[in-house]
Protein: Nucleoside diphosphatase
Amino acid sequence: MAKWRYGVILDAGSSGTRVYVYRWHDPSWSRKKGHDLNALPEIETKKKWTLKTHPGVSTFGPTPESVGTDHLKPLLDHALKHVPKNQVKDTPLFLLATAGMRLLPQIQREQVLDSICSFAREYSDFQIPDCDLHIQVIPGETEGLYGWIAANYLLGGFDNPEEHNHGKGHHTYGFLDMGGASAQIAFVPNVTETQKHANDLKLLRLRQLSGRDDEYQVFTSTWLGFGANQARSRYVDALRESTDPYIIELPDPCLPKGLKLTTDGTPVKDKAEGQILLGTGDFAQCLRQTNPLLEKEKPCNDEPCLLGGMHVPAIDFDVNHFVGVSEYWHTTHEIFEMGYKEKAYDFNTYQTRVNDFCSKPWEEIAKGINAHQWGKDVDEGIADQICFKASWLINMLHDGIGIPRVGLEGVPDSKNVTKEIINSAKSKGFLNPFQAVNKIEGTEVSWTLGKMVLYASSEVPMPEGAHPVGFGSNIPGIAMPQDFQRPSGNKGLIAEADDLFDSLFDDSPRRIPGLLLFLLILCVAALLLCGRDRRTRILSRVFTAFGCGGASRRKHSSGGSPSRLSKIFGLAPAYERVSGANAAEAAEFELGGYDFEEEIGNETGRASGWATPKLTVESPDGAGSPGKRAILGEGMLVRADSRDNLMAGVEARINRSRSPAIRSGLGKPIPE
Structure:
């Protein structure tokens, strides 16, 4: 038995695809070693197991046949370096695409996905039993659910609920994610809201190593167009619509003072055609002008709503504490972490930092970038967008989602502020309403991790009477709704097969009986899969070898009913006994199998005809006299008078078919 199990996930985003390799202890191995069974499988990954390529798979919409060699090959090669060769065939591969692929026309999207699956199967031996589940475009709600699993898995909300008691029986954390095109939210509402909005929630089922199932009712939603890049595009459109088209320079409070950009965000070096954006560096005004992008004025068809008219159950911040990843992390730390080491992070401090940065002249900011004042990874392309992103993040958190404007107290000054923040949050159980994170315990908080946690959990053997791991609609009383999605196409098969193998071949007193039973099952399965004729011959020889073949035939020919084995394995036709007035007449006709070569070569012709339509065999002279017909009952063809009569009738038909009056095609006579 292998100690480790591996899994590979490719996160196919709009700008590129990143491959992640994960591993965890085989559940059966963990049980034998006496590991803590009251926990989910422990997932491991390493930084060197990750690789990203550009651009995104969505760019292959017009040329789907190129996505394999031009895009996937280096990612699969990287994964193959870190998965042991002897385990590749047992390692599942997933490619899950997000925002970029959602924007492709359906036919292009399907062609790209088909090409990806075909290439992955041909190029590697990774396990892809079901393309629809392993290679797919996932909706934003699913992406948010996977992120929620990852955050709670790393924070310990699943395995140690007593250590994460937020009050009111609540022990999980909310999850916020923001990319370029969309933003996601996922959380478990309090008891009152869960009951009130049960139909709006997803039922999620995980399985611990002990075999115990844990179910969660999670609300998850996505706001399309509310990602940082899409929000910026909507903001620029609003600037242009509110300004006279004859004005060339549009004042933009969300750009540092003096910075000039085109409306698509590229720097203006010489004279630009059309309107341009001119930074005024007024962050307070930037906050006011980005606030309408929340679209809180949109009608709410299903109360309550937060923003964009999207229904969200009421959030109880006494028990719902959120962690934010992706843009929430980058916007709060990419610029302002290194430039302000002497201060701890909180919302009030954050706004002060942003206001100070955005009010600087662009020339001063450019000098700071060249001097690596904010780190070597910060360039002008990041710096010229940070003011808008910061204002958008603050509006989303406070006026959109409604997170209270409180900060962290008691965090000492330190050169490593980020570490102190995380440690402080951990010591308090992450009980603040919001905390931006990137890694927890050295592992990146990525929705791909959540997907792999779900898969590894599904590999734990399913106890009798339990339900599969996965997620679907939260319908009361329904454990397996129609839309229930398992983590893979072969769920339960691997784990159950491993358990069967262990029980049969491990050192135990039941090994020999188990082996014999296993071989017997294989023989029966092989017998059922072979053809009926071959099965009949095999069983006849077996029965004859054991001295029971003749008895069986005699019983059947004497009018008794066929044996049960004969009916099951096809040893004889399973026709019913004929009773009444027709019994004596039917007894004259013992029908066997029909063989055309036997028909021609034997003295007496035979016909197999229990369901054969009536057939009249005409005499050679075409008169069709009754003496030459062989019909009995409704549809039962019996023996002809003799071989000569049969051959004469066949010859007559052949002669007539050669007549020029009969043409090919439909077989209808055509006048000459």
User: Anything to note?
Assistant: Residues 336 and 353 are 7 Å apart (CA to CA). The chain has a mean pLDDT of 77. The two ends are 81 Å apart (CA to CA).
